[in-house]
Specification:
74 residues, 3 helices, 73% helix, membrane
Length: 74
């Protein structure tokens, strides 16, 4: 067995931190949408902002999935 370099633990910690951010954004999605709307808004404005937020959050989740499950060479 070879020695573990500093890159492996830092990569794991980076992916873990990114996963925590993605989960937090999914849980607080409603609050984030309300924060970007004016105090008085219509359901159409809410729906429009919701469709703008969803692709960004999905992209971050895919980033974690692709780089977290990527097959690593030995």
């Amino acid at each position: 067995m070879g020695r573990i370099s500093g890159l492996v633990p830092s990569r794991f910690l980076t992916l873990l931190a990114h996963l925590v951010v993605v989960i937090t954004l999914f849980w607080s999605r409603d609050s984030n949408i309300l924060a970007c709307l004016p105090l008085r808004f219509t359901p159409e404005e809410y729906g429009k902002q919701d469709t703008h937020v969803l692709p960004a959050v999905t992209e971050m989740a895919l980033f974690v999935a692709v780089f977290g499950l990527k097959k690593k060479p030995f």
